[in-house]
Amino acid sequence: MRESNPQLLDMKSIGALLICFPLLQSFREALGSLAKHNPVLSSDVQLSRSLTLSDELTKVALFFKQVCTVQGKTGSRVLLFPEAWALSQCRTLDVSVPVLQEFPSLVQYIYSPGCVPLRRCSGCCRDELLQCLPSSTRNVSIQLLRIDPAERSREYVVLSFLEHQRCECRPRRQHLRLQQSQKEAKGEAQEEEKEEERKKGSRLTNCIWEAKLLNGFIINL
């Protein structure tokens, strides 16, 4: 029989690995696969020089020995590769987005809250030429308190934000075209809002002048 890897000698048994990670399905599957070809192997078999291990089990055991060592020293949970891989994939996540990041032309106002909760695409793609981008979006309306420091006024307003529903990895050039069309649509919406603000300001100015004229007319009487 060939000798097992010397680095495994301080691991008392395969059972110790299973105790260290009782929910580790990948290790159990590797162990079960090996046991089919080697009936002698079980969770109680000592890892010693007399035990012949397959390359597969040796690699798995070494990996989890390293994880157990790190976890024992730091006391913190180690995020395993399968979980890290799954969490890093292109998908939607709940994030806080600054209001002024979405409406940079409204910097004269202060909004409360300053950030809004939205679902946005995030994650990695398999190729650097690809980017995690939204494939389906929707508009969500959120009520905010808008403060105007210049006028010392405040009012509740409803703003529309873009939220991502589904994501996929797409070439970056496609995203640039999509982003341009979204900017144009957002610019049109902001222009309409500015025009409405101008109309409100104009109506207020007219009311003030009418009040002054009326007041002057009454005084002359």
Automatic annotation (TrEMBL):
It comes from Danionella cerebrum. One of its GO terms (molecular function) is chemoattractant activity. GO terms for biological process: induction of positive chemotaxis; positive regulation of angiogenesis; positive regulation of endothelial cell proliferation; positive regulation of mast cell chemotaxis; response to hypoxia; sprouting angiogenesis; vascular endothelial growth factor receptor signaling pathway; vascular endothelial growth factor signaling pathway. GO terms for cellular component: extracellular space; membrane. This is Platelet-derived growth factor (PDGF) family profile domain-containing protein. Pfam families: PDGF. Residues 77-174 form the Platelet-derived growth factor (PDGF) family profile domain. It comes from the Eukaryota. Belongs to the PDGF/VEGF growth factor family.
